[in-house]
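pipeline/complex-builder :: batch 7 item 3
reading input block
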Amino acid sequence: MRVKYFAWVRERIGKAEETVEPPASVRTVDDLIAWLAGQGESYAHAFETPRVIRAAIDHAHVKSDTVIAGAREIAFFPPMTGG
Amino acid sequence: MANVTIRIQQADFDIGREIAALTEGRTDVGAVVTFSGICRGSEGDEAIAALTLEHYPGMAEAEIARHTEAAMSRWPLTGVTVIHRVGRIEPGENIVLVLAASAHRQAAFQAAEFLMDYLKANAPFWKREEKPGGTSWVDARGHDDDAAARWTRS
């Protein structure tokens, strides 16, 4: 699946998007955050406070317990500050 | 038919032209409420040289469209315009425009406020501030979530 990062999540990880293949045990958004956090120091830094991270699946906001099966694109970003 | 315009762009917008686009050729519009958000030159005691706005292309448009549809189903609107700028914006420049048009003022006032509250809390945009001491991402404010939540019908 394609994963996108925005704002300081993107800066900490050092890339805007990538394709990842997590193991089958990664079922929910929370699981994916925990798995990504284990992919290296920059990921651990980006996801060090999981409760502040917001997620979207295929351009719609989702809660952290949402199952990710079937998702084409998952995005992670900080709380929004537009307007 | 309602006029709906949603744009995300780097360029500035002309508020007069956007209002005219909601009223031209029709006589059923009695009220157009305009909200324009403008870049401030300071935050508290700190000077701000500029903001840089990042967005999530595709989702930002989709999220604004969802909120616009929600507003149209809730109030009898003749038109809605939402324009959000991205990129580097200096103090005094426009950031965002929300127009809500209706036959009567109450629907237009309420819809404009609803759209702005939802936009601030839910539309995927992020601001970065340039200050004398360096640049930093703007922290989200809890009261923006509270402002959006008050429109939720129980």
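note: Helices of chain B lie at 15-23, 59-74, 105-122, 142-149.
queue -> next item
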